[in-house]
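Annex B. Sample input.
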Amino acid sequence: RGPGPLFPMPIYEEKLVSPLALRFTQDYVRSTFRDGRDMEATITAIEARPLDCEGYDVLLAAPFPAIEVLRWRPRRSRAEHGAATAADDGEQWFSFDNRRLYCLQRAAVGLWPKRAAVAVEVLYRDTGDMRRKMDSSTLGRSVNLRHCTDIVYGTWCWREALAARGRAWGRAQPGATDEDCLAAARVTADESKAIDELHDAPAEPGSLQAIL
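Annex B, continued. Sample output.
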């Protein structure tokens, strides 16, 4: 048996992706983080910084750590009539960090039709957590919002949120502008990209990568 690699394989890569191309893994998120911070206040603290990167206009800078994402193909537990079936969406990008993802999607929708990107940690493989913890009944397309009392007060779906603002998320939608279509094309492209097709995240100022 030969010697192992000189450097261990990384467990993730830092990449850029539209937060609207990411899906939830849970049916519910609470309105506060574990440390007591309110999600609404957190959303207002997210900054949109200019981004010099093909396909994006702004980079979302959030007051929390980067979310972890994984490309995975879920299986729907129950179809419309109760029969188990494979999901028809194929592989998609999912995150366990559902509250943070919700905040990022809210910020991105507020900036539409600007094409927002976020730096994420893309995991190379699932250790079994995804299959065990995934309980979204909508394959991650939406998430229910509830207070700490477990009372549901709303449902979030970014496409429905855009429609409520009078914006379109695709050429087939009524009133779609060229800017809407360009932004929607960015989301669709990121939804289908493999890890090596995503743009590398920019290095933080002062980091070793930035110095090199």
